[in-house]
From TrEMBL, chain A:
Residues annotated as transmembrane: 37-59, 155-176, 203-222, 234-255, 267-287, 299-322, 342-359, 366-386, 398-424, 436-460, 480-498, 510-531, 557-579
Coiled coil: none
Lineage: Bacteria, Pseudomonadati, Bacteroidota, Flavobacteriia, Flavobacteriales
Segments forming domain Cytochrome oxidase subunit I profile: 351-602
Keyword Protease attributed: no
Protein name: Cbb3-type cytochrome c oxidase subunit I
Record keywords: Electron transport, Membrane, Respiratory chain, Transmembrane, Transmembrane helix, Transport
Species this protein is from: Christiangramia antarctica
Gene3D superfamilies: Cytochrome c oxidase-like, subunit I domain
UniProtKB/TrEMBL annotation, chain B:
Protein name: Cbb3-type cytochrome c oxidase subunit II
UniProt-listed SUPFAM superfamilies: Cytochrome c
Membrane-spanning intervals of the chain: 12-32
UniProt source species: Christiangramia antarctica
Keyword hit for Signal: no
Amino acid sequence: MKIFHFIIFIFTLVLPGIIHAQGKNVSTESWITSPGILGTIVLITIVLVVAIIIFLTHINSYLDAIKKRQEVKTRTAFDDELVALEESHIDTILEKRKAALHYKLKGNELSGDNEVFDKKGLIQKITNDPNNAYFDEKKKTSLSLETPEPLKKIVIYYIGAAICWLVLGTLIGQYLGMKFIWPEMDNQSWLSFGRLRPVHTNMVFWGWSSLAMIGLGYFVIARTSNTIIHSYKWAWRAWILINSSVILGSIFLMAGINNGSGEYREYIWPVMLLFAIALVITFFNFYKTVAHRKISEIYISNWFILASLVWTIVLAIIGYLPFYQNGLGETVIQGYYMHQGVGMWFMTFTLGLVYYYLPSALNKPIYSYSLGVLAFWTQMLFYTMIGTHHFVFSPLPWWLQTTAIVFSAGMFIPVVAGTTNFLMTMKGSWSHISKSYVLPFFLVGTLFYFVGSTQGSFQAFRFTNYVWHFTDFNVAHSHMTMYGIIAFFLWAAIYAILPKLTGKEPPQVLVGAHFWMAFIGLFAYMVSLMVGGTYKGLSWIEGNAFIESVILMKPYWVWRAIGGSLMFTSHLIFAYNFYYIVKNRKQVLVSEATKPVEEITV
Amino acid sequence: MLNFHKEHKNLVLAALIIFVALSILVAIVPAYQMQATVPIPSQEALTSQQEKGLRVYVSENCAACHTQQVRGIEMDNMWGDRPSLPSDYYYSKQRLDVWRQSPSVLGSERTGPDLTNIGARQPSDDWHLMHLYNPRSVVSESIMPSYSWLFKEVDSTAVTEEDVVLSIPKEFFNKPGKKIIASQEALDLVAYLKSLKQTELPDGSVPQFIPALKEIQTGNMGDGNTGTGPNGAKLYNATCVACHQANGKGVPGAFPPLAGSGFVNDENPEMLIKIILQGYDARSEFAVMPPFADQLSDAEVAAIATHERSSWGNDAPAVTEEDVKKIRDYINNELNQ
């Protein structure tokens, strides 16, 4: 009930904004106080504040550790002093003490050659050689899960291929970002901005995010159905198809063969067909596995994952069928396709993953199962209707635009439901933020889920669209969602599960470096383009010459490139971490297997 | 009956059916409706060369940075005289071939200018070719890539009659004995770009833009050089600056300077007005100037001429709307006879 009150409360807060946004006369005099822009600023501040809190908690626990070490040092110094005391001096002191307490210390209780016993089993790990003197050590997770070897291999190979695409795809993205500053970097047709941009977007979409999602999905499907995957062979076939589709698609795009510039469907249909077949195979495999589950209930993750596969298959078919795509028919489908590609495929699937990996990483159940079900149905209902908000004020029918704007506001329901569910699941485990390297990823993903989606809804309002549409703000928004939400959740899930599959944990300093570089990089990227995009829109509204908006963007493009470099570097670190987790995996597994069962915690 | 928690078949079927139903409602039905749009009666189909140019436009993915939609809001007025209509896309948005669908020319990013009306705004072949070869040779602050692979570098001796030779300033191309000529693809692309013009509506009606910035509409009128009427500096920046540059110095070897120009500074503005209205092609060392009579009103031509005559060290008397009107009438009479 509480949740519903909360949702209604949010709605009443936002409603005046929606009504205002529908007005036919928009004035830019007080643009800064318009609900959409104000809302966005508030949302960004939320992320910033939470990031600062995470940072402070880390600093705090680090300071605590230093303090403790200091205390230990003083104590040791005191011990040394005691040991170094001269006999006669000791005698005098002891005499004094004896006189006072009739009690005498031997002086070697805390040192000496005596063997150490931990009678109460309090000490977990003894080391004379700490990993790193400058960082707080995170708690070790219990390693090893009982998982069939073929499944482990599938998960690792899907994620491994995904990481190759992530590194290559973001390298290309970074290169594209630098072209804004140095347009003459190269003069090769196949490296030109127009051809390379879709290579970047499609590679990180279909290569990185999709492969990582499906790989992580295989584990969830098998685990929550308490059974084995229907067919490992088909999983491998889908793996080959998806990778071939990304390879071929990228080559075609660089050769100047694209499907007509429609965003995210630049791959020509024979190439996308490979991807679609892989989706059908994956769906069939997942569906059969769920059908043979050994428990009666279908866990909520599987709702999201199965549905996202079904929806995306439908989406690919509608997006590529030719019968209604001449004239602006294509534009209607484009709005529908590009938004659903993000909403029904990446968002839905990833939410399904979070519903499993978040509670399992915290070793507790999800806060509310029903809220998950509510989020599921509303996700389908609202997300499907909002594609046309990419074409506000365009020649598309006004009713279609209005529908899109109204349902964009409706997106608050699934978003608030999801965010509440994740945050309430984390509640009570906040101490994990400083103790684990998985939870910060989940927390940032959740925050961006709320902030990015809500900001997107704000952006659909007519006024904010007026200022932001066509500017670099869109690029900031798409990175906030595809990177801030999807990539962060995927990283959280990967760091949560892979060490358990291989029995090897990555160096914690490097996971921390990955987290902070990705986060700070994204923030620099996002804020610079948001601020620059806003100024650009205002410059257009004022009727200034177009080239002025190009000139004013230059410093923001530099900051974007700096943020992008940090993001790209973090991916290199991530790739190394992955390598570290999976290398020599077989040997680790053998040594784990020889351990007695009771030592393996699941 | 519909226990989604336990019946996987029902769950998946329900998700599928509802999604397909919503998709039909919100995507397929409106798409069919939009596809049924007919062209405006006076709208011209693409010629086969323009059609080829459109394919180059798609191959190079120009839509990644250039939109082709004038939205129904005041700020987009600078890109066209009226908001875009579904009919405008009738000829350009047809399926390309069996492999590729109808091109998404509307775009979603305006990293570069909107191209809906580029054919009217920038009708000069030479400008387009130079701009494609190296955008910074005509727009110094541009960040657009150079499309040098659409051009060929040949020996001066090998240049034939049919070749279109570019007059690139030395700082962008300096190889003695060599010339840059446009490939067929570049010529096709320019033909396509020049075809991008808004068709006038048959009954002369102009759909209204949603007004937004009252202060601009009323407040900014006064900054023009003439005190009233259109703002000459702004019009110059929108219409002339691409070739003659913001400093009025033009591009050596391609576009003549206006600063210190005899025509511009002539006491009698007749020749200057004639050139603006009719275009100019008397000097072989410079590119052809296209006529602007159809695009600019008398008041606008006067404002531009006055701005040119009073900027960059030029000092000649202002031009009035009446001057322009007189010359326009004279030209029209001459043509009719």
